[in-house]
Specification:
Two copies of one chain form a homodimer. With about 170 residues, chain A is an alpha+beta fold. Chain A contains seven helices and eight strands.
Chain lengths: ~170, ~170
């Protein structure tokens, strides 16, 4: 298939690097990835994770074909199918239902993203961690704790303290 | 048009109330609205604003037809066209390009939402306020400062201090 690439990445390799243009949307067949941002102080902030059957990209860069704000890096050896912007356009024209499928996926992602903003403002870190475990149990088990801390916007020491509290309460 | 309502609301009235089911997506013809969440301590957290030519709803509730997490309230006298879930389905079937239109709108909204999460983690409040003013100049001028403070996740006193700093620097 033209403009469609079946590709394997090793743990640690990048699908997108901050500053590059994100040329593909990647569907994850196998593996685990993180999308993260490095701020001016060099600190890493995890934006999203992705596992099997999820899509990943720097969507803003993919849509505009401008330099990416984020990095997408493999946390495990990862296998993806990648679709270029041209290919996606072709697919949308050939299969109108795909447009619907992506509209619904992205609406759900948007709702989840808004909920995360509200939780970050209104819930203590401990409740946010419990919510994260409940919502993404598979990710919680596969991803190193310091990345979950970053996703929650707290230090890994603070997450470790929270986990200790939760275990003590059980 | 069946399932489509042209409706006027007064300042202070609600389009959606937390706990109700959001039955419509509303296209704003005139006016200004805020989407907000009230936490268990009774504190209000602004999630989104909407002005002319924007769409507003508790999207999670609209999609699932389950009780809304958020309130959508008019900050000014507001005029909207409201589309029910059934009507939206009909429109998507009659006008396939509408599916595309909404896919693109919501992708952009998702990208903006993710950026907001990253900024909340990585930028000081002052930079976030400057970014907000740049991105949404019309909203910044129309919306009371305490609501902007809530949107930014800071107190109104802190926003006032930041504004003072910015004026002093000019």
């Amino acid at each position: 298939m033209e403009n469609t690439i079946h590709r394997k990445y090793l743990k640690g390799q990048y699908i997108v690097q901050q500053g590059d243009i994100c040329r593909f949307e990647s569907f994850v067949i196998k593996g685990c990835l993180k999308t993260f941002y490095v701020d001016n102080e060099g600190q890493e902030h995890v934006v999203l994770f992705a596992i099997e059957n999820w899509w990943t990209a720097d969507l803003g860069s993919f849509l505009t074909q401008k330099p990416a704000d984020y990095n997408v890096q493999c946390i495990e050896d990862t296998e993806v199918i990648q679709f270029s912007s041209d290919k996606m356009e072709l697919l949308y024209q050939e299969i109108p239902k795909l447009e619907r499928f992506f509209r619904i996926i992205i609406q759900k992602a948007f709702v989840a993203s808004e909920k995360r903003i509200v939780r970050n403002f209104s819930l203590p870190a401990k409740e946010r961690y419990i919510e994260f475990k409940k919502t993404y149990p598979q990710i919680e088990q596969r991803v190193p704790q310091y990345l979950i801390a970053s996703y929650l916007g707290i230090t890994k020491e603070f997450l470790s303290k929270i986990r200790g509290q939760i275990i003590a309460e059980q």
